Amino acid sequence: MRYAVLNKKNKESISLRETLMGKIDATYDEIDPEVVFSIGGDGTVLNAVSKYAHILDRILIVAIHTGNLGFYTEFLPKDLDDILALLKTDYQINEFSLLSYKAGTYEGLAMNEVFVSGKFKMLEADVYIDQTLVMNTRGNGICISTPTGSTAYNYALGGAIIDHDIKAVQLTLAAPFDTIKHRMAYPIVLSEKHEFIIKPKNYDCELSADRLHINLHNVREIRVKISTKTARFLKNEHNVFAKRIKDTFIGRD
Ligand code: NAP
Ligand code: MN
Predict the structure, then answer these.
(1) From CA 84, how far away is CA 192, in angstroms rounded?
(2) CA 165: distance to chain centroid?
(3) Ligand 1, atom 22: nearest CA belongs to which residue?
(4) Contacts of 27 (CB under 8 A, 6+ apart)
(5) 195 lines ligand 1 (CB under 6 A)
(6) CATH of domain 2-92+235-249
(7) Which residues lie at CB < 5 A from ion ligand 2?
(8) Residue 45 in contact with ligand 1 by CB distance below 6 A
């Protein structure tokens, strides 16, 4: 087996990386790994997905959280021996949706969300679902998220938490400010068959895809939909989604 490790640059994550590399019976291959260990938080997972976006179909991500459990990070440092044993078995995986976006000459993937904003100005845009214009909006921005990204920025914007087993895409507005009659105040959740098309009135705006920020110049149309690509994660069978919601948003017992 070929593996790589991506870790957060804090003491606990660096030390777990060393322990893992001392125990694992496999070859380190940063360029073409079969298994990618992400040690840190959900943010570390976003980095791993972005780094290996071109070979996501071939890799298995093992996400270990140093600190509290996250939404992608199903395992804790104490699970290390169990993980190494599990990898030798017929393990189960979580296959998570990604978004694909296209904006002018830019295209790429996002694991959590695509967020379009007007930089320092208000974003004014028409929003289409496929060929149909569904709203005109002005405000801080428009967030389009995956089910796994629904607990990130989407949640802060008042969006719904979506079960990871549902294939869906959600649109939420950031601080919408206007009385244009076609504005919708509430999130829209669509099945994976549909595409959101944003036609900004500000041809110069900003697009964020997870941790990546792109300045768009003279862009008339931004297209976002569920990608045919997915990210594959080692599943922790003992993990209960409802419990993770509780631990994150209410607190641990
Ligand atoms: P970051 O440190 O990577 O992430 C910011 C925080 O969001 C961290 O605490 C991270 O958890 C958590 N997080 C990431 N993905 C999550 C998920 N799917 N569910 C629940 N929590 C999640 O900061 P960054 O470099 O700016 O990362 C970009 C992410 O931050 C974006 O994808 C966006 O979702 C989020 N963001 C949120 C807001 C907001 O809430 N107002 C604004 C901008 C961006 P860990 O500590 O475990 O890494
Ligand atoms: Mn966290």
Answers:
(1) 34
(2) 14
(3) 152
(4) 1, 2, 3
(5) no
(6) 3.40.50.10330
(7) 41, 70
(8) no
Model confidence pTM above 0.85:
yes
CATH number of 100-227, picked from 3.40.50.11740, 3.40.50.10490, 2.60.200.30, 1.10.1040.10 = 2.60.200.30
Side chain identity at residue 154, one-letter code:
N
Catalytic residue among 25, 29, 42, 81: 42
Each residue's pLDDT tens digit, 159-212: 999 999 999 999 999 998 865 555 567 899 999 999 999 999 999 999 999 999
Q: Tell me the mean pLDDT in the region 139-165.
A: 96
Quote the pLDDT of residue 70.
83
Mean pLDDT of 10-22: 97
Report pLDDT digits (tens) over 34-80. Answer: 999 999 999 999 999 999 999 999 999 999 999 776 899 889 999 99
Distance from the Cα of residue 51 to its chain's centroid: 13
pLDDT for 179: 58
Q: Is 210 in the pocket of ligand 1 (CB under 6 A)?
A: yes
Instruction: Decide if 111 contacts 231 (C-beta within 8 A).
Output: yes
d(CA 88, CA 26): 11
Query: Where are the domains positioned within the chain?
Result: 2-92+235-249, 100-227
Q: Which of 12, 46, 68 to mutate to test the pocket of ligand 1 (most atoms within 8 A of CB)?
A: 46
Q: Which amino acid is at 26?
A: A
165 is catalytic: no
